[in-house]
Fold 2EXR domain-containing protein.
Amino acid sequence: MFSAFPQLPLELREEIWRYCLPYRVRELDRSEYDLYEVEGESEIPCWLHHITSMNTRPPAIWSVCHEARRVAQETGRVSDPFSLRPADSKWYSYLQIHDRWEDSQRDSVHMNWPAMTTYDDDGYGMPLRALSFDALRLSGKASIMFTFLHSCLKPDPGEKVAIFAHPPSPGGCYPHEDGMAHLRVYRRAMLSDTRALRHLDNWSVVMKTVVIHQDIRIAAMTGLFGLLGDALVQIVDVDEVERMADLLRLARNCEQGFNVTARQDFEPLNLQEVNEAVKQTLIERGYGDMVPKVRPAVLFRLCPRMCNRLGRAVTPPPRPIGMGRGFVSFWLDNPKARR
Ligand SMILES: [Zn+2]
Ligand SMILES: [Zn+2]
């Protein structure tokens, strides 16, 4: 900040702080695919749950001074979305996130859960209702994985999709039903849950995930992760051509010159192919009317931990404050780490 900042009128200072607030993607749950891998031994590009837990923190300006914190708290707070949802929109998953920061004006919500039915012992309830309920409390925008959309049940010809259904309880089961009755009630609930697609006018469907391994301060300078680099997760729709190209280029540059455990695919999505896939999936489930409101997207995650570098033995210790401000500085510059 420049030195005249404190002399600006309060209203102007607050306006500047507001301008620094990030537009973030609030995650309902952690990604599951990396949980069973042993860090340092397996060939996956990133341990995504590190990013997800960093992504629950308050925005950067919250830690600057009391004035900035007050501005962040005008629209932001820590909340547990699980406890705020009404009974007909409950969803439980063993990967769900409880306390997290959220901004009621700026943030969208995202569910990493990969399929509607596969994990019935680890997740139960009404996932889409939960997601859309959360979205409506915030900016009204939500995103899901394509695998999830594709796993939503299709109604048989003539089958009614109930407006209301009791959410399934643990294990996807209804304790008082058995055999075929149990399956019927479960199917009724899961079909009914798909109706929540109509609760929002703005959906993104994640066709692929790309991880960018980079120092947060360097990434912040690109402006692609919020003004201060505190929006670590970005969901970019296929029609945001420029931002998509910038992020893919950054991702490629951050991986190309290094020996990594797993190479990622940085090719842009085939527009026609993904549009068609999303459209078909919606039509087959009776949501042809939603086609213009649902867009294919890519999920970008900024990870400062360099999970994918071969030979990375330890997590680098934090740099002393004031060193390498915004520029490359090797962690060996930390005098404590030198020996
Ligand atoms: Zn990583
Ligand atoms: Zn069951």
User: Anything to note?
Assistant: The chain has ten helices and ten strands. The radius of gyration is 22 Å. The chain has one domain: 21-158+199-315.
